[in-house]
Amino acid sequence: MILSVNIAGVEWKSPITTAAGIVNSGKEYGTYTDLSILGALTTKGVSLDEWMGDTVPRITETYGGMLNSIGVQNPGVENFIKNDITFLKNLNANVIVNVCGHEIKEYVSVVERLNSVDGIDMIELNLSPLNPDTENKWANFGRDIETTTKIVSEVRKVTKIPLIVKLSPNNLSDIVEISKAAEAAGADALSMINTLIGVRIDIFRKKPSLGNKIGGLSGPSVKPVAVGAVYRVAKSDVKIPIIGMGGITNAEDALEFILAGATAIGVGTANFGNPRVTMNILDGIKQYMSDNNIDDINKLVGAALNS
Questions:
Q1: Are 41 and 95 in contact (CB under 8 A)?
Q2: Is the dihedral of CA 281, 287, 292, 297 positive or negative?
Q3: CA–CA gap between residue 122 and residue 138 (Å, rounded)
Q4: Which of 197-232 are b and which e, b meaning 16 or more Cβ less than 10 Å from the residue's Cβ?
Q5: Which residues face 65 on adjacent strands?
Q6: Which residues contact 180 (CB under 8 A, 6 or more apart)?
Q7: CA–CA distance, 300 with 271 (Å, rounded to integer)
Q8: Helix runs in 36-159, H state only
Q9: Hey, what's the torsion of the CAs at 230, 233, 238, 239, to 10 degrees?
Q10: How would you class 172 by CB atoms within 10 Å of its CB: exposed for 0-12, middle for 13-18, buried for 19 or more?
Q11: SS3 of 180-234
Q12: Above 90 in pLDDT, residue 127?
């Protein structure tokens, strides 16, 4: 049974990664689950300098998911290299570093710094705001074709590390056209979707539940939107592979994304409720393949596109 997939020339032993922002760099997560079953581990967002994150409260539950406004709190790229790279290099899985910034030059600077670091297999550019607010303090670099093209092309100039571009359903243009722009600018793969913008109101305090007011919606409630995005992009003339994510909690969810055209999948919010969920999903995929006499996971990729 073949479970390995190839993403932009990088061989993954399984089609599963962690979604950015969930497991930091995996040290704590690894005490609860077997990281070696992952095709890749995607880190929390890494910025040029330390980001302190958003005002508390940062998380609130919603029907079918959660809203978060973490603000990509992280200690910056130098601290990331000092404290996390050694651990990541010893993982028996590919390492994807998620990169974020307030300006294009910050993305470029972070990627330039990562070029000299051993053990990084892929870079994921987070072009969509996980935690947008009314002040627009973090620009949405994936909001249209022009900005997507500019940031991807500028980063592409400074690195040969395979680039994954993470896209949001919140952009002002069609996600298919944004995907085409990212590919044309030099992206090697796409990941989709990031969180949906949402607000929850505390009816007793008569104000938004989150300190940042607006947050990113994740969890099972976003899955049909995410599968729809993957399906539309995969059905277009975009040729680079897609990593699908958004609301995956079990093997059936993962298989939906794969059948819709994703070569691999990312698991995010479900890890909070079940730290072993990636192991469970892989076991479920194996069982599905065995039950249906499928010897290669790649035969399932996009199988629903022409039905």
A1: yes
A2: positive
A3: 23
A4: bbebeeeeeeebbbbbbbbbbbbbbbbeebbebbbb
A5: 62
A6: 236, 237, 238
A7: 25
A8: 77-89, 104-115, 145-156
A9: 20
A10: exposed
A11: HHHHHHCCCEEEECCCEEECCEECCCCEECCCCCCEEEECHHHHHHHHHHHHHHH
A12: no
- How far does the chain reach from its first CA to its final CA, in angstroms? 25
Percentage with pLDDT > 70 across the chain: 95
Which residue, 223, 264, 267, 224, is CA-closest to 241? 264
Q: Which DSSP category does 160 fall into?
A: -
Residue 106 and residue 125 in contact, taking contact as beta carbons nearer than 8 Å: no
Mean pLDDT over residues 13-37, rounded? 93
Please check the confidence at residue 188 and state whether its pLDDT lies above 60: yes
**Whole-angstrom Cα distance, residue 215 to residue 69?**
5
Give residue 80's identity as a one-letter amino acid code.
Answer: F
pLDDT interval class at 272 (50, 70, 90): very high
